[in-house]
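Please review the protein record below. Tell me whether the encoded fold seems credible here:
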Amino acid sequence: MDSEALVRDHTIYSCVMGSRAFGLATDTSDTDRRGVFLAPTPLFWHFEKPPTHVEGPAEEQFSWELERFCELALRANPNILECLHSPVVEYVDDTGRELLALREAFLSRRAHETFTRYALGQRKKLESDVRQHGAPRWKHAMHLLRLLMSSRDLLRTGELTIDVGDQREPLLAVKRGEVPWPRFETWMTRLAAEADEAAVHSSLPTVPDQARVEDFLVRVRGASALQADPYDERVQGVVRGRSVRQR
């Protein structure tokens, strides 16, 4: 299946992520692009289904098929939720705007568990680096603090803001290795405790609004089935791409 054609012709939303979205970019920062594509419904009528994600075609570009994206967002996957809240949107069509309008439906107190679990995994890696090499990978340490800040503030306010704002310089100091490890540990532990406290009093719902998201997904799948001609050149181009590789 021609995955590049899905991204090229059927993207509904694309944005910039990474340091440029977090307000932490420097002169050497990459431009990480993330997106969502809606595979035409006729493609699901074949034995081989459309891919759930596509890497490329540009460097540092990664896209998810809409259903997979929604599934991960409902699970409060940190990368996916942050993608939905990027302040740097490069493209959005009408369906993409509907997806963005659903951002609130994906948010729940599940984010506390997923963000914390991810942060804990990163903390163990950093501690291993310190034991083995005497210092952590400071860039990863910076992003761990950023993630804990996002989690805490989301639980406190009910809104996910990924730009670090006035925390840019303190966080970049961590990235440059200017913050001693003991001080970093104290900062990290304090942020984790603040997130735990915020979770207790959070106004976020216990679970996301899956019914609302599913209604959106079923509706756009149905609209695609009604509007798309299975012999449309763009659809057939994707199928032909698949067939060529199978030979």
The radius of gyration is 20 Å.
